[in-house]
Amino acid sequence: MPRDPLLLVPGLMCDAAVWQPLLPSLQAGRECRVIDHCLADSLTQMARQLLDAAPERFALAGHSMGARVALEVLRVAPERISRVALLDTGYLARAAGAAGEQEAHKRQALLDVARSQGVRAMAAQWVQGMVHPERLQDAELLDAIVMMFERKSVDVFESQIRALLQRPDASDVLRAIRVPTLVLCGRQDGWAPVSQHAAMHALIPGAAFEVIEDAGHMAPMERPQAVAGVLLRWLGNA
Question: What pTM, to 2 d.p., does this model score?
Fold first, then answer.
C-alpha cells in the first residue's frame, strides 16, 4: 500500500534547508515535499495555499511558524491529514497588553535592521538566540542558517511577521486532533521552551512528546539524526 506523502512546512524565513539534513532518512520509500509560503501574510492564507497544492491525503510536519501553519491546515481540513508533527513551536495567540506589545516591538526591531542593513545583518543578529549556546562557535551551522534567511526578501520577512503577530489561538485545534501526533522540541529552545510544548502535548489526545537533547530552536539542523529518528518512529509504516 502506498505511503501518504509527507509535507514539510518551514518556519519564519526558512526554506528547504531546514529539512534537508533529514531528507535522506525521510525520503526512503516516501514522497516528501517542502512547502514555500511565498508572500502570504496570514497563517490561514499559508494553510490554504498548502491545501490547494497538496494531495488529497498526506502526513504533515511543521517547524516553528510552519507548525502553526500545520495547525491552521488542521483547522480548515482535518480530514485530509493522516498524522501531524509539531516541532519547536507554539499555539497561543499573541499576548494582550504589554507582553504582546513587547513581542511586536522586538519583531519590528529585527525588520528595521533587515530594511536598513540587509537581511544578512538581521540574520547574523537573530541567529544568536536560535541554537544551543554551545553551537554558537559552529561556523558551518550558523552560516547555513544565515544563508537560508538571506535567501528570503525583506518583503517576505514583513509578511511573515504580520502573519505571526495576527496568529489565532489554536488550543481548540489541539484538543480536536484525532490522528497520530508528535510534539517535539530542542531542550535548549529559547524561543519555544519545553514547558510550552508540554502544555501543547497535554491538550492533544494520545500525542507523543519528545525532547531533543543539546539542541535549540533549530533542532532539525542542529541534531538532524536525532530528529529524523523520532520522525521515523512517528511515521511508522503509514
Answer: 0.97
Grid cell digits, residue 206: 494520545
pLDDT tens for 106-151 read: 999 999 999 999 999 999 999 999 999 999 999 999 999 999 999 9
Q: How far apart are CA 112 and CA 157, in angstroms?
A: 11
Could you write out the DSSP letters of every residue in the chain? -PPPPEEEE--TT--GGGTGGGHHHHTTTS-EEE---TT--SHHHHHHHHHHHS-SSEEEEEETHHHHHHHHHHHH-GGGEEEEEEES---SPPPSHHHHHHHHHHHHHHHHHHHHH-HHHHHHHHGGGTS-GGGTT-HHHHHHHHHHHHTS-HHHHHHHHHHHHTPPP-HHHHHH--S-EEEEEETT-SSS-HHHHHHHHHHSTT-EEEEETT--TTHHHHSHHHHHHHHHHHHTT-
* Burial bucket for residue 234 (CB in 10 Å: 0-12, 13-18, 19+): buried
Q: Please, what are the domains in the chain? A: 6-93+167-235 (3.40.50.1820), 97-161 (no CATH)
Residue 126 CB neighbour total at 10 angstroms: 18
